[in-house]
Amino acid sequence: MSVQKRPNGTYYVHHRDYEGKKNWTKTMGKGPDAYAAAQELDALIKDKKRQLRNPTLVTSIQEVVYLDDLAGLYYKDRKAAGWKKWFDHWCQIMNRRILPKLAQIPVKHLTQDTLVGFILNEFPKASQTTHGNYLSYLKMMFNWGVQRGYIEKNPLAYWKRRVTPQKELTLTLEDINKIRAVAPPHTALGIEFVANTGVRPGPSELLALKWSNIQWEQSAVRVFAEKTQKWRTIPLKPEFLDKLRAEKELSNSDFIISFRDKQVSTIHHSFRLACRKVEVPDEVVLYDIRHWFCSTLLSQGVPVKTVSVLMGHASAKMTLDRYAHVIIGDADKAIAQLPSLG
């Protein structure tokens, strides 16, 4: 296991997994920053392996393991495995909101009722989906602890996420244009980009895009999906491509969406303020523009498989399960086959 460099100058970390069964490679990129990141990841992996080989540590943890102990071990293991983006956000939530109040409670004393009640009380304004996400992340951590032998049982073993009622899309093209008209320039460009491409409007896709992702000659943009770990190519309409060319001329940033020539981590707040200015309901969120993109294409008869690829979904089945209600044409044809009752 070590930090290595390919002939093209790209640094990567190479090692075998904790069981010594499979090779694992993580590419970090080029340059001094990439080399430093590779060294840090390599150190994390080596530290974790030392812990797993230390029977004294494992034995002491099995006797009494507190939530902060388990969270620390889990963090090192997952970072060593290369988890990023959403995991870093979850760690911030753990450090700021959860561990300060639950850190010194032995895991064996935690119950499902305690944890569910805590999440609901600590995040009263969060949606049912967010509550479910946080409990799912905790459940994943406890499962990991059981598998590694740090804890005997998962306090959330029998907890299941509630089925979230399907949200009815109320956002219209008129609404999108109204919001864009009063939004700050960088937010307006973000809104327009999501409406034209359907990219996920957060740090994993929209805000990670650089001008180098634009394929100017092919009139397309290359997008990497963190969720599926796959690249996809999304065609761009000529008029939107012209808009991007003009924006690039004015930009001094590598990133397409930037504020004062620096990358931004979110545009949700400025989007919400713009919505309020034009009296768009509070339940409308930035992600609804992605839903609008998908629903519009499907309602116009674009094949599900094509839309699924553009959206970066794991499968066409996922697209169909979520958006079958907007595919009206097939239902009309089906009803037309019914015989008349006379």
CATH class of the largest domain: Mainly Alpha
| Beta fraction | 5-15%
CATH topology of the largest domain: the name is hpI Integrase, Chain A
Overall 3D shape? globular
Helix percentage range: 40-55%
Pfam families: Phage_int_M, Phage_integrase
Organism: Oceanidesulfovibrio marinus
Protein name: Site-specific integrase
GO molecular function, one term: DNA binding
Q: Would you kindly provide a brief summary of this structure?
A:
The chain is mostly helical and 342 residues long. The chain has helices at 31-53, 55-63, 67-80, 86-102, 112-122, 128-148, 173-182, 185-197, 238-250, 268-277, 287-299, 304-311, 316-323, 328-336; strands spanning 2-5, 11-16, 23-29, 214-215, 220-225, 230-235, 258-259, 262-263. The chain has 3 domains: 1-53; 63-165, Tyrosine recombinase, N-terminal domain (DNA polymerase, domain 1, Orthogonal Bundle), CATH 1.10.150; 173-287, Intergrase catalytic core (hpI Integrase, Chain A, Orthogonal Bundle).
Describe the fold and architecture.
The protein has 3 domains: 1-53; 63-165, Tyrosine recombinase, N-terminal domain (DNA polymerase, domain 1), CATH 1.10.150.130; 173-287, Orthogonal Bundle (hpI Integrase, Chain A), CATH 1.10.443.10. The chain is 52% helix and 10% strand. The chain has helices spanning 31-53, 55-63, 67-80, 86-102, 112-122, 128-148, 173-182, 185-197, 238-250, 268-277, 287-299, 304-311, 316-323, 328-336, and strands at 2-5, 11-16, 23-29, 214-215, 220-225, 230-235, 258-259, 262-263. The strands form 3 sheets. Strands 1-2-3 form a 3-stranded antiparallel β-sheet. A 3-stranded antiparallel β-sheet has the order 4-5-6, with no helix packed on it. A two-stranded antiparallel ribbon has the order 7-8. Helix 3 runs antiparallel to helix 4 (86-102). The radius of gyration is 24 Å and the shape is globular.
